[in-house]
């Protein structure tokens, strides 16, 4: 008996009926593009009948990543965060689908909890499969010891953005840079995608805009602003958002905090077998997104100011800001060295 693939679960009839009640049914002709690489915001499509292929063009040629059939659904974790599509979806045969936006997806999870039990683990597994099946994502070309290159890759890694780092001095790196800049690169690092130059020496804010990580701030007053997206901040966001509170998480780099760089964490409650810092952060991030939390990354808080109506004004270093009823500071620790003469002699 074949074992169901948890990355591509099949919804049963009751779950499909619930999907129909939350979204809109559409007839899709063979060959129609449902979404293309870079499309945002990204809707989900539940397949009622027919076949929808997921195609990747990141390596210069078209690759089939998956085929969704009756009972399956499109999407990965980027959909929850409002990020652009990493691949494209196209009907292989005449099909019938139900289109769901992110609000309708969350409503579906509420009216039919069994769907969420299948959906969220599948989204987590699909990002891993995307990389295993050859998706290259963004290319970062720079010197391997260059702090700016390392910072760019750390930002992409923390935020789960698929990318490929190439040393500018390697044969592959030189070949790609020459193709992008026949007269020589104006600087490093270079960010490219599908053989198209996107930015040279980008700031973290530039990277956030180009990758879709940096999202518009919510304009309504938030119930809770959480400053810091380490394990404590993510935990606070999950608890707040799961209670229906409007929640915004602010971080200058991305989910994970200090723990995000740990290869193995053995002392975190609920994971007796241990878990990597990246997986811990990813699970907390997706769980917060599931309940509707918003993330402001990369953004740094410049001030928190009490207003006359007892709410708080939270100002960011880029000049923007939000208002909130409560602010939770979960910034963790920053290590500083004491100004003691000859301290390095004893380190």
Question: Briefly, what is this?
Answer:
By secondary structure, the chain is α+β, with helices and mostly antiparallel strands.
Which spans of ≥5 residues are poorly predicted at pLDDT below 50? none
Give the helix/strand class.
Answer: alpha+beta
The shape, in one word, is globular
What is the helix content? 25-40%
Widest sheet, order of strands: 14-13-12-17-16-15
Order of H and E elements = HEEEEEHEEHHEHEHEEHEHEHEEEE
Tell me the distance between the termini: 61 Å
Number of strands: 17
Q: pLDDT average, as an integer?
A: 94
Q: How would a crystallographer describe the biggest sheet?
A: 6 strands, mixed
Helical stretch count?
A: 9
Q: DSSP strand (E) fraction?
A: 25-35%
Could you please describe the fold and organization of this structure?
- With 347 residues, the chain is of the alpha+beta class.
- Helices cover 29% and strands 25% of the residues.
- The chain has nine helices and 17 strands.
- The strands form four sheets. Strands 14-13-12-17-16-15 form a six-stranded mixed beta sheet, with helices on one face. It has a four-stranded antiparallel beta sheet with strand order 2-6-4-5, with no helix packed on it. It has a four-stranded mixed beta sheet with strand order 9-8-10-11, sandwiched between helices.
- α1 (13-22) crosses α3 (102-111) and α8 (231-242) packs parallel to α9 (277-290).
- The model has no long low-confidence stretch (mean pLDDT 94).
């Amino acid at each position: 008996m074949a074992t169901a693939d948890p990355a591509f679960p099949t919804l049963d009839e009751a779950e499909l009926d619930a999907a129909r009640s939350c979204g809109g049914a559409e007839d899709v002709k063979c060959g129609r593009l449902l979404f293309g690489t870079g499309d945002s915001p990204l809707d989900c499509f539940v397949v009622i009948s027919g076949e929808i292929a997921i195609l990747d063009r990141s390596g210069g040629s078209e690759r089939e990543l998956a085929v969704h059939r009756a009972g399956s659904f499109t999407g990965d974790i980027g959909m929850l965060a409002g990020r652009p599509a990493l691949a494209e979806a196209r009907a292989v045969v005449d099909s019938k689908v139900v289109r769901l936006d992110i609000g309708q997806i969350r409503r579906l999870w509420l009216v039919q909890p069994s769907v969420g039990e299948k959906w969220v683990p599948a989204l987590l597994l699909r990002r891993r499969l995307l990389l295993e099946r050859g998706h290259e994502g963004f290319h970062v070309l720079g010197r391997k010891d260059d702090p700016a290159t390392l910072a760019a890759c750390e930002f992409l890694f923390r935020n789960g953005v698929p990318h490929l780092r190439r040393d500018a001095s390697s044969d592959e790196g030189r070949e790609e840079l020459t193709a992008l800049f026949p007269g020589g690169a104006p600087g490093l690092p270079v960010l490219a995608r599908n053989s198209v130059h996107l930015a040279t020496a980008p700031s973290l804010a530039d990277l956030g805009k180009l990758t879709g990580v940096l999202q518009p701030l919510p304009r309504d007053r938030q119930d809770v602003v959480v400053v810091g997206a380490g394990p404590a901040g993510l935990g606070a966001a999950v608890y707040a958002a799961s209670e229906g509170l409007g929640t915004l998480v602010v971080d200058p780099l991305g989910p994970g905090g200090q723990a995000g760089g740990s290869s193995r964490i053995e002392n975190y409650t609920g994971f007796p077998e241990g878990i990597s810092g990246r997986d811990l952060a990813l699970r907390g991030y997706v769980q917060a997104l599931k309940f509707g939390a918003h993330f402001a990354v990369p953004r740094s808080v410049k001030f928190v100011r009490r207003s006359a109506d007892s709410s708080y004004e939270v100002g960011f270093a880029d000049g923007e800001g939000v208002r909130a009823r409560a602010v939770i500071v979960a910034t963790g620790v920053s290590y500083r060295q004491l100004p003691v003469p000859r301290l390095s002699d004893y380190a």
